[in-house]
Amino acid sequence: MTIEEVSILRNDMKEITKQIMQLVNQRMEIARKIGAIKTNLDLEIIDDKVELGIKSYLFSNPEYLNLDPEFSGRIVNMLINESIRIQNLEKNKLNGKQEIIEHKTNSSVQPTKSPPTKDEHKIHKFEIKSHLDVFNAAKNLELQGFKIIHMEVGEPDFLPPVEVKNELTRIYEMRRFHYTQTAGIRDLRKGLSNHLANISAKNGFDIFEPISPDKIIVTPGGRFGIFCSFSALLRPGDEIITIEPAWPACFDCANYLGVKNRVVKTSLEQNWEPDISEIENQININTKIICLNYPNNPTGKILNKKSYDKIVELARKNGIYLLSDEVYSNYAYEPYRSVINFDYDKSILLGSFSKTFAMTGFRVGYVYSRNASLINKLIKIQALALTSVAEPMQSCALLALNSDPERNNKIMKKRLEIMCEHLKKLPFEYVFPDGAMYVFARIRRDLDLTDLKLVELLLNHGVAVAPGSGFGSNYSNYIRLSTCLEETKMIKGLEIISDLVGKL
Amino acid sequence: MTIEEVSILRNDMKEITKQIMQLVNQRMEIARKIGAIKTNLDLEIIDDKVELGIKSYLFSNPEYLNLDPEFSGRIVNMLINESIRIQNLEKNKLNGKQEIIEHKTNSSVQPTKSPPTKDEHKIHKFEIKSHLDVFNAAKNLELQGFKIIHMEVGEPDFLPPVEVKNELTRIYEMRRFHYTQTAGIRDLRKGLSNHLANISAKNGFDIFEPISPDKIIVTPGGRFGIFCSFSALLRPGDEIITIEPAWPACFDCANYLGVKNRVVKTSLEQNWEPDISEIENQININTKIICLNYPNNPTGKILNKKSYDKIVELARKNGIYLLSDEVYSNYAYEPYRSVINFDYDKSILLGSFSKTFAMTGFRVGYVYSRNASLINKLIKIQALALTSVAEPMQSCALLALNSDPERNNKIMKKRLEIMCEHLKKLPFEYVFPDGAMYVFARIRRDLDLTDLKLVELLLNHGVAVAPGSGFGSNYSNYIRLSTCLEETKMIKGLEIISDLVGKL
């Protein structure tokens, strides 16, 4: 063996690389042709079944035994994604449009007509895609002097616990404003391990193993828990499975990381219960995470026992992580099982102080996993990205744990009951939520109204609600109504809705 | 055009995909062979020049004109990285080792001997690589009852401004605990635009254009500004240039993102001035960012006018971003130029409240760039990762801007003078820092002592200092001494050092 041999082998490698790229080029030429035909025939560009077909065809093939299957899967996913991009390019070229923008833009929303007037009958047009767009549009209207009833956002209107108030006045004197351990103040993590145990006990379920504070990391909000977990576990070309309708954070993070999001849709008819065989069908060699969110935003659904058991079995069989976003744990009106009530170590629990203690702006969330090496990875990523969570905010969170958030649960449940009583009389269909703080209501077909039209109409009459299409592509005939506002305001809002849809 | 045609084309695509994967398989077989030969000949697995060779060979080739070059580059990078992984696997197999762990681990530091005693003469062994390891080891010793003088960390010992104290007591009552705009509270961004203008004015330099609050984003600490900027601008296979010795955040973030870090070393002999031709030599087609940090951590260096001019010219000529970490702006003892004093729009200023206002634990930093589209990208990434910075912390930062941090500058300068007076009499070499709050001191050669040995010795006698090797591979005969502690403690620490090195 000599260095000359290395040189010869390197030349072979270069040649092979060149051939690979020539074939990639050919593949993209075909993609262009397919794009043109699909545009002419008005077919959807993305076809999940064809994609999965390509993968299973390849991986049933013994020639690749020497290749790392994950690596191969990623390469194939990259080729597929580029093909889709090229087909879209072709479609837009033929349709005379510009290239579509890769990432969804949260365009700041502004009424198109100006200058503003206070004439209630003047109709503003909005560019709305999600609940955040509605929130921004509503804020703009308020700046113009309009009064808006906010039923679009998930920010509880309660005050944070009084313990937090007291702690804020002590922070300076106690000098609690330094760097902390990246994983978070130890007392806070200890407090959280009790807190989690208590939630399970309250719901009547056992924790599989004692919760070690060493397996908890405190993050700046639940969102960073998702971002961090995805960053730790996923690479471009990997895949996740989400169950829609869904809060779009998982989708957005996946998109950002070049990760494919495979969607399982659920329906009102099926009481928002996912079809397990559909989840199974989406699983392939690159599937790394199944994302769960129960009590669910936007439907309020809590998964039934049988479905949850089956999902855990599927995950176990395929070695897939279960990321369970349980930020609505305090707003369960039926017993709810946490992912930590299962004997499954590839599970990730995501929690937050935002909803439970009405502390959205403090930005304190946390991740717990029995998997110590995963938590260590998250700690490394957090150390890299932001050192640690602000100590004053951690201290406030620690003190909040001394309070009982049960009262918030009671109030929210009562509001949901009132809201549903009102909706009963209106042309909406819904199931009473098992948890959370929203009603996800379908607009009755005979109204012949899309979510965006209805959202716009309501906004022009002082009521902000979230469009269903922000939670998945199948839900453009839904709106999400939040109960994060005082009862009287909420009733006033529902009356305005009643008046408006009554006239339609 | 019919749907049957799509079906035929899809089959062609499958076949091509299969051929691609067969070639990929062949390529990895070659990688395995090369790995075996390199192991036998004891050659390095990674060879920068060969990598660049493959890329330039491919991209000089007209056959790929139809392929998106970024996409092709990523595919090639994936192939190269997988080859490296396979070569390493082969090497470890032949050497009888397990697969190497991909990411660097920051092993938590613990004294190896236990149980602990308070016997001052008992020598603990530490696993130390960076100032953070020293900090953790020192904290562990303190838990065991030892007294430690902390000269290893860059956390000012001052109190935050009294305005912050007052604001903390108002947060709850004023209900400043909600989600804010992702870019940060508008008043805070307005305040920062004045703050930045004032710093430039104080140093006697002009700002090229008025600082718009719309081009500022408030981040959870300066670190997230780096993480976010890198995420926005870099993809695996891209490159950055850093000037060492350096705070390791840029290196760590680059490493995490699969970005190559090319290093330009500076030396005490050259008064820490970088050699511009060396920077120029490192620039190639993949270079996206040059990272600057003046006043510098750890040397305290402020770049001279000529060097800075040349670096800006180099960046302009090659279309490279300049990321200027100016978190020590308040601790400049010589006039210092900010990157915003240049007429260059691919510049990024990174600032923080941590050092200037002694607010490390509040985790508030910011990024300003004239490049509005870059700031919009950062806003999107921050929205995705963490929604917004905690509102109470932003409110405190806003109030801090009403205070004058000049006093902190005066105290730190005086401490540096005292420290250097002491060091003069000791076997250390250094240049008096132009700024910041450290002395980066070289251990005189005749002591025949590495930084890690000295750090361990000092730690065992109650003084924590940072090892030079944490700031770059050429600096294992340096220690960094911080002036973030009261004068009397600092003098005590220096006396202990004096006693110890006197005995060597």
Automatic annotation (TrEMBL), chains A, B:
Keywords: Aminotransferase, Coiled coil, Pyridoxal phosphate, Transferase. This is Aminotransferase. Homodimer. Its cofactor is pyridoxal 5'-phosphate. Residues 6-33 form a coiled coil. Belongs to the class-I pyridoxal-phosphate-dependent aminotransferase family. Residues 1-91 form the Chorismate mutase domain. Its EC number is 2.6.1.-. It holds the Pfam family Aminotran_1_2. One of its GO terms (biological process) is amino acid metabolic process. It comes from Candidatus Nitrosocosmicus oleophilus.
